[in-house]
Amino acid sequence: MTKMFHIVLLIVMGLMLQACGIPELTQKNADTQLPDSFKPNLIEQANTAKVKWKEFFEDPHLTRLIDTAVANNKEVNMMMQRISVAENEIQARKGAYLPFVNFGTGAGGDKTAMYTRNGAVENSLQLPNGQTFPTMLGDYQFGLFSTWEIDIWKKLRNVKQVAVLEYMASTEGKNFLITNLVAEVARSYYELIALDNQLENLNQNISIQQNGLVMVKQLLLFARTTTLAVKRYEAEVAKNQSRKFEILQQITVTENRINFLLGRTPQTIQRATSGFMDIKPKVIKAGIPSQLLQNRPDIRKAELELSAAKLNIDVARANFYPSFGIKAGVGFDAFALKYLINTPESLAASIAGDLVAPLVNKNAIIAEYKNSNVKQIQAVYEYEQSIINAYAEVANQLSNIDNLDKNYSLKKYQVETLVQSIDVANQLFKSARADYLEVLLTQRDALEAKRELIETKQKQVIAMVDLYKSLGGGWQ
Questions:
Q1: Phi and psi (nearest 5°) for 275?
Q2: Are 324 and 199 in contact (CB under 8 A)?
Q3: pLDDT tens readout for residues 184-196
Q4: N or C: which terminal CB in the chain sees fewer CB atoms within 10 Å?
Q5: 27-97+151-322+357-470 is classed in which CATH architecture?
């Protein structure tokens, strides 16, 4: 027995030594260093990303739309099914390193040729009660059978942990999807309100030009102007009326986009159009850049995928080492049904162990090991890229908000000045001190300036939404 133990020990040591030829691979660690602040002399611990979206958005129409989108969006629901698959994978991997116990039963029979060793033995034996072996010898059995791979190198446990990390990464992927969904619904909602204001502005301008057209026609009766002025006014009114239908089509498209995000067929979107130009964008606290690592779901997802990639290297390395398994069984076995449950005569048991290790032609194992390392390095770069991208998004939006504030102030002054100039131009035209073209151009400039002012307000509000999303808000 001692000699056999020494032989087995030598075999195990030999298999362990041959596993020492594992290729050396280059490792890479992630660089997560970020600047101390997004802007010089701007360091604040408060972070708006931690505010829930139901508290961030105050418009009740918008919050109802977002609530519906989070519950019904088809892409979110598809992601939920992928998360369920990842959760089931954990259960499957967890069971892989536990013993498998199965119940089995079987029946069969064979006939041994008489002029063979087994045939001669059977003919010479007497069964109980003086019976002889039957011509067709049966084989009936039932019992419990167990197999168990002993996870010495933690290969199976690491595979289970990889499944856990991938499940957590899928959850973060869902959070990132919800963040984008909330922002997209908000952007489309504010775009829809801006289009309503553009339509209202256009209607007001058409009314002004129609009044101007009436005035020009009256002046024509008194020979104080020409037919050309009337035709130019009529053309300008027709141009703006045609523009109305373009805006109406944009409104329809935007409404249908929101309905698609909400996972429903096209219908009218309830919204609060009035007061859009009076909206004051929220003051958003950006916090410090390092908080992005905790607040951004896409960064956390990349970090979890990196951890899973590192563990996969350990799983691939374990393939170089021998695996140990145990097989055992206990039950009843007899050549005839009437003897099957006889105890202890028909009671059978077995136990065996096996040791398996790769010895020759390990190309597939080596390739898998190298691929695992390459995927880990790739995951490092993806993690670093997600961090850099997040920082750039926040920095861009902070700068965008500052510049839009200054832009809006100047645009507002421009509109106020042009609105005043319309009355002045009309008075000068009535007193023949200004040409009709000056009046038309003044009205056209005022319309364009108002349109740009509404667009600037829309950009301000959307920049607020985008900064909230860039900081990692919107999924809570």
A1: 85, 5
A2: no
A3: 999 999 999 999 9
A4: N
A5: Up-down Bundle (1.20)
Return the H-helix or E-strand segment holding 348: strand 347-356
b/e 298-329 (16+ beta carbons within 10 angstroms → b): bbbbbbbbbbbbbbbbbbbbbbbbbbbeeebb
The whole-angstrom distance between residue 60's C-alpha and the CA centroid of its chain comes to 27
Chain segment 130-181, per-residue pLDDT in tens: 666 667 777 888 888 888 888 777 888 888 888 899 999 999 999 999 999 9
Q: How far apart are CA 91 and CA 74, in angstroms?
A: 26
The identity of residue 232, as a single letter, is: R
pTM of this prediction exceeds 0.70: yes
SS3 148: strand
Q: Is the dihedral of CA 79, 82, 86, 88 positive or negative?
A: positive
Sequence-ordered list of residues with C-beta below 8 angstroms from that of 469, at least 6 positions apart, any chain: 179, 180, 182, 183
Angstrom distance (rounded) from CA 62 to CA 185: 8
